[in-house]
Design brief:
The chain has helices spanning about 1-25, 30-50, 55-75, 80-120, 130-145, 145-155, 165-175, 185-195, 200-215, 220-230, 240-250, 255-270, 270-285, 290-305, 325-335, 335-355, 360-375, 380-390, 395-410, 415-420. By secondary structure, the chain is mainly α. Helix 9 (about 200-215) packs antiparallel against helix 10 and helix 12 runs antiparallel to helix 13 (about 270-285).
């Protein structure tokens, strides 16, 4: 079907180019010859007009003088007989060559179009409907290399390693084998291994930090672990790193590090549309000096282009478009519980109105769900959760984040309960 349509388009284009060549006059006469014949015909018509008394003899005589003058001028401009013969021969040759020119034009157009397609196109490439591309992305996500495989092929991180520093860090790691519950020691090991560029060893030490902390481990602890794992794999988000990111978002759906790397994973499996949405929301909520802002600005335009979205990058240093600034936070600290409640209610209302217009991210829905829960609006939180699941039904990562928000919703206290406890 593709080649048939391409052939028809080439033929149609060729017809429009060839038609003027075939329709050009093949028996055109010199303009001067036409003028001579015209004026002679007028002279003959004068005698007939006089005979029919259309004009008087005096008027005919005057007109005859003027027509004769014009006839002489046209005759002077006419070509000599040799020039006429040459012109006629040239016109005949031109008429004979027109089909050849038309045919060569058709062949040139066909050859040029085919050559450009074989150079720039993809002959034989199958159609890529949207659902098929999404399925292919899920396949890539399910079959991507593990953390161990990625670390084995990742390029070594260059660093200015001092042999004395390496020896000291190795001694610290060795000492911690007999002090496995030394939290401060493992935290120092994480920092120094990362400083040396040994991210895989730093990730192992961070796992021990999380083990020691247990239930007290924070979202930032898990985000640091994911960061180290991804750096160790050469900026690749493995299934194991993704699981750590999900643990981070379960504890804090707004965590910037986890959201950035979640967008990176989405881009790596071929879901530029999801990556763009994730990065855009994070960029618009972030302060200019936050560490992921520069990385997002370097990637988001290519993600938008791949997703088919027209997007204008905000100016560098622009203030976040959403969320309270530091002045609002400071002002909230001086408010009474009821005043804080009114302020939060206003922020929740604004967020809900914006999400109702569509294109909301899972993180934003999670914020709305948890905020309504904190306000004691369990019914509103449940309604928001149901609506978010309907709008993001085809996004497994988003559904996972919503599941985490639901789990937190069921366990967190409401603002009214907190105020009562105070």
């Amino acid at each position: 079907m593709f080649w048939l349509i391409a052939a028809l388009l080439i033929a149609l284009t060729a017809v429009f180019i060839a038609l003027p060549l075939f329709h050009a006059s093949e028996a055109s006469s010199d303009q001067d010859d036409v003028d001579v014949a015209f004026y002679r015909a007028q002279l003959n018509a004068l005698e007939k007009d006089v005979a029919r008394s259309v004009i008087t003899p005096e008027e005919a005589k005057s007109a005859k003088v003027e027509i004769s003058r014009r006839l002489l001028e046209a005759d002077k401009r006419s070509h000599s007989s040799i020039s006429k013969a040459s012109s006629k021969a040239s016109s005949k040759a031109s008429s004979t060559g027109r089909p050849l020119v038309a045919g060569l034009s058709v062949l040139f157009i066909a050859a040029l179009g085919s050559g450009l397609y074989f150079q720039l196109g993809a002959p034989g490439y199958d159609d890529q409907p949207l659902m098929a591309r999404h399925d292919a992305a899920e396949d890539r996500r399910a079959t991507r290399p593990s953390q161990t495989e990625a670390e084995s092929v990742a390029p070594e991180t260059p660093s200015n390693r001092n042999l004395e520093d390496i020896a000291l860090v190795d001694q610290l790691r060795q000492a911690l084998t007999t002090r496995q519950d030394d939290l401060r020691g493992h935290q120092l090991l994480v920092a120094n291994e990362a400083r040396l560029g040994r991210f895989a060893l730093a990730a192992q030490a961070q796992e021990q930090v999380i083990r020691i902390k247990g239930n007290a481990a924070t979202a930032d602890d898990y985000a640091d672990l994911a960061d180290l794992m991804i750096l160790a794999a050469g900026n690749y988000v493995s299934p194991e790193a993704e699981a750590v990111l999900q643990e981070t978002l379960q504890r804090d759906p707004s965590n910037g590090t986890a959201r950035f790397y979640l967008g990176l994973m989405q881009a790596q499996i071929g879901r530029a549309d999801m990556a763009f949405q994730t990065w855009r929301a994070l960029l618009e909520e972030s302060q200019p000096d936050e560490p992921w802002v520069t990385a997002i600005r370097g990637r988001i335009m290519s993600a938008a282009q791949a997703a088919g979205v027209r997007y204008e990058l905000p100016p560098e240093g622009a203030a976040p478009l959403r969320g309270p600034d530091q002045a609002a936070v400071d002002a909230a600290a001086e408010m009474t519980p009821e005043q804080r409640r009114v302020m939060i209610q206003g922020m929740v209302t604004g967020l809900a109105e914006r999400l109702a217009q569509g294109n909301g991210t899972a993180q934003e829905w999670g914020q709305l769900i948890l905020a309504r829960t904190a306000l004691g609006d369990a019914e509103g939180a449940t309604a928001a959760l149901d609506q978010a699941r309907r709008e993001l039904a085809e996004n497994p990562e988003a559904l996972a984040i919503l599941d985490q928000a639901e789990a937190r919703m069921k366990s967190m206290p409401t603002l009214s309960n907190s105020e009562q406890s105070e």
